[in-house]
Design a protein that fits this description.
globular, about 0% strand, about 75% helix, mainly alpha
Length: about 240
């Protein structure tokens, strides 16, 4: 499986249906949010692992979600199949924590601009992201169990469509995002030197995600970038 499967395949379809039911968001809007948010989540996880010394913590978090069974019973985990309300609440709380760990100080930026573009309230989008985050972690956990080893970069690379850590999931994406997710001046310099198009899916995603987090871009530009990201994986 790859990122497209998570967005629009069997897992993505179940996630979209569940998100729509528990948040009241239409399935068409839920589909767009999933297609835009999941790649941003993957990009942020990869950046945090590479540039913020969080690889070990992310590995542990992925392991914790690898046996959760959430991919097989998505509806049950969020109260759609007879699960206890407390369980659904715990999953939602877990989801909010994951989102905040993923995006850090950019959580509000991500939430607000997705809300603006989708025509929803920020609280609705917060609920969607909290529902989506444990599913993403469960998916990564499943992929890790099926892999033959390697670090976060190799795992991200395989999810983005295969390849080695160097050309698919490694420093390239982290470098491109460095200046936008709280990186150092050195990382910012590296980011400006990285290609943003014409290469692998990782290159293109990195360029789009980096542009989205660019504080100099206005709301309309960010909305257009979200459309472009969604278009990469939501077709």
């Amino acid at each position: 499986m790859n990122l497209t499967d998570l967005v629009t395949g069997g897992v993505g379809s179940k996630a979209i249906e569940t998100i729509s039911k528990i948040t009241g968001v239409s399935e068409s809007k839920a589909k767009w949010i999933v297609a835009a948010a999941v790649p941003l989540m993957i990009a942020a996880l990869n950046y945090n692992a590479k540039n913020k010394g969080q690889a070990e913590n992310i590995d542990k978090a992925i392991d914790q979600h690898s046996n959760s069974g959430i991919l097989d019973k998505i509806g049950d985990f969020f109260g759609q199949g007879g699960a206890e309300q407390g369980s659904a609440q715990n999953v939602s709380e877990d989801g909010n924590k994951i989102v905040n760990h993923m995006f850090g100080q950019n959580t509000e930026v991500v939430t607000q601009h997705i809300a603006d573009k989708a025509g929803l309230s920020s609280s609705q989008v917060t609920g969607v992201l909290a529902t989506l985050a444990p599913i993403v972690m469960g998916y990564l956990g499943q992929q890790k169990q099926a892999s033959s080893g390697g670090g976060i970069g190799d795992l991200i690379g395989s999810v983005l469509g295969g390849g080695t850590q160097q050309n698919a999931g490694g420093g390239m994406l982290g470098g491109i995002l460095g200046s936008f997710l709280g990186g150092s001046q050195e990382e910012q310099a590296q980011a400006t030197e990285q290609p943003t198009s014409g290469g692998s899916v990782t290159d293109m995603l990195g360029g789009l995600a980096g542009s989205f987090f660019d504080k100099n871009n206005d709301g309309q530009a960010k909305g257009n970038i979200l459309d472009s990201i969604a278009g990469m994986f939501g077709k």
